[in-house]
């Protein structure tokens, strides 16, 4: 008891910054060892060896003949068992997946120590200990099928998910999903949509939970998507790819409109868009430390478009991206593993008509996007019954907007022509949006046998600090209203001028959570998981005024019934309450420093602009209702799963 109290104190002191979702980089490897007559064998020495990285973990079977490797990194393992008077057993190719339990049970026969039996393990297609509706798309699979080169495209293959990218899952809104990369939340805090891109060659696996999600996860009533990146192995290996696309190579659309009968053929755009990609990874020290890195450079040019002014002007968008991803993993001791990674995904050169009525090229807006992420995780097996996982991460997405092309007048300030309702000379925006996160979490798992039944207790702390920063202004902080504007000469008939105040607006928010769950047996064929998640969310406007103060309680219960007794035919059910977070855009709407809203109005008197009045939208005395409730859904599920052979299963 004193040890657990001391450990809890360490955990509380360790969480000094703030976080997101529970890390999901490890699984559990367990099993029961019996003799030839079916009797349980205690005291068997069991060794798990990573087939990709060579490190080992050791365990000894307990009085019930059970061994367990908690918090073990994902991958394939060779299991070896030894006991005096019995022949050795080796089982290879046992796959451990994120947050799944891989059961490898076997029988040892009486014989000399030199006698060995080689057995090939099974893939954990169905998992009695995990009721969540979970779909994994692994590198071995998506490397062999035609699919868009992004994790957003891979999501489209997941049952229950509609669309790609910002998807609808089980009827939830596109802003109700949770997007993780290596367990670190990368969801845009303001919109609730995905917050960044990733080099496709860095992806090892995309895992998505669509229902019956454990209490370890919160802030989503749609899908919980976790993108796992690659780690190096004991082999030096790499790749180089050149990919070229061209709309002119694609088949023409031969269909016709069902209403008018008109042809729907498009005008093909003949332009090669190249992608260069390179990867390299391997051991820093064999069996102990590894690295993996990727670099991708791409250019994408779209067909020409035209402005909508009296003299249409052609313009073209060419985006350039340079994605970098690097990861280092180390087994620092037999029971302690750490990894650290960094990625950035800048894409420059978007051209957007935010006006919707840009009359010339100088009224268009250019946009550069990027996202950056530092993350790390430490997992430790403190004893045969206690394990710990801790992670940290910083994530930030940023969009810079600037004029696409210089205008003729007043440092590119835009002109609105009242005669035709179109905009000239200047862009809609000149500024930025940035949405950073600071995150950290920590969790302890305790394995215990109570009343002859095994229990897996897990408790975790989960925190997150988010911000929404923006500074949007018109070029030169001015907007001209004209009675007329001549696109050919740039001459205009003045009406009025607005001089805007400039300044950034920064809203902030904190989210903290505590969760507790227990996975346990009820009889030989029934397995239950009970959990509860408590969350507290606070938000404040750009002047520190409180905007959000919500508390939620999220109970969840799920279970499996082993119909066949071998763990391969399961009936599963769950009930739970799920909440999504209140988007940071809610706090943004109470900004006392509104963007492009406060200005001084000057009227044209025939020879000069003369001050007329001042318009102020900010500093409103209105205060939001701090009893605002998080959106929620109550969910009931019923499912059936069956595994066929080593690598096939079906479920509904």
Walk me through what this model shows.
By secondary structure, this protein is mainly beta. 4% of the residues lie in helices and 53% in strands. It has four helices and 40 strands. The strands form seven sheets. It has a 16-stranded antiparallel beta sheet that branches. It is elongated. The relative contact order is 0.12. The N terminus is likely disordered.
Short description:
The protein has four helices and 40 strands.
User: How many β-strand stretches?
Assistant: 40
User: How far apart are the first and last residues' alpha carbons, in Å?
Assistant: 43 Å
Tell me about the largest β-sheet: 16 strands, antiparallel
**Which structural class fits the helix and strand makeup?**
mainly beta
Q: Round the Cα radius of gyration to an integer and report it.
A: 29 Å
Query: Uncertain segments of ≥5 residues (pLDDT<50)?
Result: 1-23
Number of helices: 4
Q: What would the average pLDDT be, to the nearest integer?
A: 88
Q: What overall geometry do the principal axes of the alpha carbons give?
A: elongated
> How much helicity do the residues have?
under 10%
Strand residue content: over 45%
User: Which assembly state applies to the chains in this document?
Assistant: single chain
């Amino acid at each position: 008891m004193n040890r657990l109290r001391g450990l809890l104190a360490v955990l509380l002191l360790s969480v000094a910054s703030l976080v997101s979702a529970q890390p999901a980089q490890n699984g559990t490897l367990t099993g029961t060892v019996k003799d030839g007559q079916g009797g349980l064998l205690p005291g068997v020495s069991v060794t798990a060896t990573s087939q990709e990285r060579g490190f080992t973990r050791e365990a000894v079977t307990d009085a019930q003949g059970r061994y367990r490797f908690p918090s073990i990194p994902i991958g394939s393992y060779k299991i070896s068992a030894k006991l005096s008077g019995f022949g050795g057993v080796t089982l290879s190719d046992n796959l451990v997946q994120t947050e799944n339990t891989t059961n490898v049970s076997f029988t040892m026969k009486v014989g000399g120590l030199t006698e060995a039996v080689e057995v090939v393990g099974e893939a954990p297609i169905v998992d009695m200990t995990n009721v969540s509706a979970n779909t994994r798309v692994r590198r071995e699979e998506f490397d062999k099928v035609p699919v868009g080169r992004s994790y957003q495209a891979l999501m489209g293959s997941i049952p229950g998910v509609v669309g790609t990218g910002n998807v609808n899952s089980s009827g939830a809104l596109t802003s109700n999903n949770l997007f993780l990369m290596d367990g670190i939340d990368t969801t845009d805090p303001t919109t609730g949509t995905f917050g960044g891109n990733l080099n496709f060659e860095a992806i090892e696996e995309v895992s998505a939970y669509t229902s019956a999600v454990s209490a370890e996860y919160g802030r989503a009533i749609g899908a919980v998507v976790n993108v796992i990146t690659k780690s190096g192995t004991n082999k030096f290996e790499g790749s180089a790819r050149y990919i070229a696309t061209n709309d002119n190579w694609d088949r023409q659309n031969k269909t016709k409109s069902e209403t008018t009968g008109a042809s729907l053929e498009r005008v093909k755009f003949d332009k090669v868009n190249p992608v260069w990609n390179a990867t390299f990874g391997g051991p820093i020290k064999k069996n102990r430390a590894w690295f993996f890195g990727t670099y991708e450079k791409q250019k994408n040019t779209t067909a020409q478009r035209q402005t909508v002014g009296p003299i249409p002007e052609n313009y073209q968008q060419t985006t350039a991206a340079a994605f970098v991803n690097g990861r280092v993993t180390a087994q620092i001791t037999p029971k302690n593993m750490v990894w650290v990674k960094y990625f950035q995904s800048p894409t420059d050169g978007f051209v957007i008509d935010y006006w919707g009525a840009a009359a010339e090229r100088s009224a268009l807006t250019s946009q550069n996007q990027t996202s950056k992420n530092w993350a790390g995780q430490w997992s430790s097996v403190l004893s045969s019954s206690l394990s710990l996982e801790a992670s940290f991460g910083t994530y930030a997405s940023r969009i810079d907007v600037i004029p696409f092309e210089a205008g003729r007048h007043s440092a590119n300030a835009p002109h609105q022509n009242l005669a035709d309702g179109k905009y000239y000379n200047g862009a809609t925006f000149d500024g930025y949006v940035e949405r950073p996160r600071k995150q950290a979490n920590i969790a302890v798992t305790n394995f215990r046998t109570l009343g002859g039944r095994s229990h897996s207790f897990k408790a975790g702390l989960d925190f997150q600090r988010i911000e929404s920063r923006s500074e949007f202004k018109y070029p030169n902080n001015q907007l001209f209203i004209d009675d007329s504007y001549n696109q050919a000469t740039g001459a205009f008939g003045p009406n009025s001028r607005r001089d805007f105040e400039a300044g950034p607006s920064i809203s902030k928010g904190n989210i903290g959570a505590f969760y507790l769950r227990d996975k346990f047996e009820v009889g030989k064929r029934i397995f239950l998981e009970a959990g509860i998640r408590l969350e507290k969310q606070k938000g404040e406007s750009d002047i520190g005024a409180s905007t959000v103060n919500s508390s939620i309680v999220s109970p969840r219960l799920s279970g499996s019934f082993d119909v066949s007794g071998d763990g391969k035919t399961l009936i599963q059910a769950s009930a739970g309450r799920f909440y999504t977070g209140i988007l940071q855009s809610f706090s943004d709407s109470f900004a006392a420093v509104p963007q492009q809203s406060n200005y001084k109005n000057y009227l044209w008197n025939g020879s000069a602009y003369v001050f007329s009045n001042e318009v102020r939208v900010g500093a409103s005395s209105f205060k939001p209702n701090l009893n605002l409730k998080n959106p929620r859904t109550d969910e009931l599920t019923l499912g059936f799963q069956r595994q066929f052979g080593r690598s096939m299963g079906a479920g509904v």
